[in-house]
Amino acid sequence: xxxxxxxxDVVARCRExxxxxxxxxxxxxxxxxxxVDDFQDLKDAGLLALVVPRDHGGLGADxxxxxxxxxQIAAGHASTGLTFNMHNIAAGSLAEVDxxxxxxxxxxxxxxxxxxxxxxxVTHRRVFASANSEPGIGAHFSAIRSSYRRVDGGFVLNxxxxxxxxxGFADWYVVVARREDSDGAIPELSFFxxxxxxxxxxxxxxxxxxxxxxxxxxxxxxxxxxxxxxxLFLASEGLGAYKVVHQPHWVIGGYIxxxxxxxxxxxxxxxxxxxNKRIPGSDSSVVTREWVQHSVGELAxxxxxxxGLVYRxxxxxxxxxxxxxxxxxxxxxxxxxxxxxxxxxxxxxRLCGDRVSPDHSRSSATTGTPGxxx
Length: 374
Ligand SMILES: Cc1cc2nc3c(=O)[nH]c(=O)nc-3n(C[C@H](O)[C@H](O)[C@H](O)COP(=O)(O)OP(=O)(O)OC[C@H]3O[C@@H](n4cnc5c(N)ncnc54)[C@H](O)[C@@H]3O)c2cc1C
What we know:
Distance between the termini: 27 Å
Radius of gyration: 21 Å
Largest sheet: 7 strands, mixed
Number of strands: 7
Bound molecules: flavin-adenine dinucleotide
Strand content: 5-15%
Helix content: 40-55%
Number of helices: 10
Low-confidence stretches: 360-374
Shape: globular
Mean pLDDT: 92
């Protein structure tokens, strides 16, 4: 367990909300409908500002608290956890940027952008989505094809994105694109905040997958979209490399809490089911069988190993953010938890067998596909 102090109140609040989210999860999953009601609850609880610094009106959660809070939310509803993380990738990456010492026009523009974005989250309760992935490319930054060029007063953006979670529901979309004349192996990638109503923005509703259905991760197209200068993310071109090298805990590792929550809910669900399941034709519970105990025991140990690695990585972000060792832990923990969650789900299906009643579930996690997102 961690040696750092975690904001236990925030984590407890998220756990409480997750209990409510769990009661709605199956419906949203079945309908593939975005959980607007969950997001309304998150807004009402001030949680859109979870990682926004306190001096900007937010709750100022550190990365470990964030990871534990997200774990709770995702245990209640996997899709709400995953999409809530997309919002926090924008908020968190901005929160930790230190602009002191950056003088002149550049420093002022960076501060103005942060003020604007935090105000959108805190006062106006606006939700931010993240549009990186592209057809045939996935989220491989070096191959991004969407492009932008400078024009008077801003930029013009063109490109196609897929898997945009919250498409049509988020207020703002942080879109990554390469500078039009930047063709090298390491292209100059910049991020733009695009609104749903900006001319040239189109959403194509295609999302009908087997799992994580309530993320509504649809396609988006940008055709000659004008983005004013003040919506260039952090007023800085070429942030792509910075984010990958210095902020992998957001770009890559923000999800670790969500996947851990999904795994935890799956594990709890499995244990609850097995306790109630009788051996057909007898009064004995299946948990009296040694092989069931052995299998569950092995999964429990792996669950704790993965939990330990996730917390250790999150703790490292606080203690030594952006260092080689911390980044290594972030990548390792994401790999571990996103491999373990689907493995656990498949083992749980084998162990539990037939259709289960929802009585002992606090989550819909088993109706999702844990660990496959982003
Ligand atoms: C529920 C869900 C929500 C998502 N939400 C978002 C979102 O909000 N925003 C967003 O931008 N994206 C989102 N994504 C997209 C996600 O980030 C990935 O881009 C997408 O899932 C495709 O990546 P991938 O790694 O699965 O597939 P790919 O990158 O196509 O990889 C698939 C397989 O191809 C092979 N492969 C790929 N590249 C190489 C290589 N260089 N060398 C060897 N083998 C290779 C590997 O075997 C790999 O396992 C979401 C995805 C899901 C499922």
